[in-house]
Amino acid sequence: xxxxxxxxxxxxxxxxxxxxxxxxxxxxxxxxxxxxxxxxxxxxxxxxxxxxxxxxxxxxxxxxxxxxxxxxxxxxxxxxxxxxxxxxxxxxxxxxxxxxxxxxxxxxxxxxxxxxxxxxxxxx
Length: 124
Description:
Elements: H1 2-5, H2 11-23, E1 28-34, E2 37-49, E3 54-64, H3 73-87, E4 93-95, H4 102-111
Parallel strand pairs: 3-4
Antiparallel strand pairs: 1-2, 2-3
């Protein structure tokens, strides 16, 4: 999770995040283990698409340990998300990826068939 956040995430913060997911009726987490160590993480949820009365599977989190990138772990997690979405009668999957990720993550997502469709706007 620290890799995704870009800063250290304490065990207490991680317990809080896991408690949020555990209490959520729509959020799920999946991991990929290699040699009994977590090397990848996928967050998944269903999103209702009101403008056309449909559903999408949202990949809310995806991160792979940098030492294990290029071995198919990310592809496996995204394929799992696609299967979850199909099984739950979604019309597809979507994800949000931040700026500065164009050379690695964005290229990877495009290679797997994802298309850029807009920007995310945030107000705090």
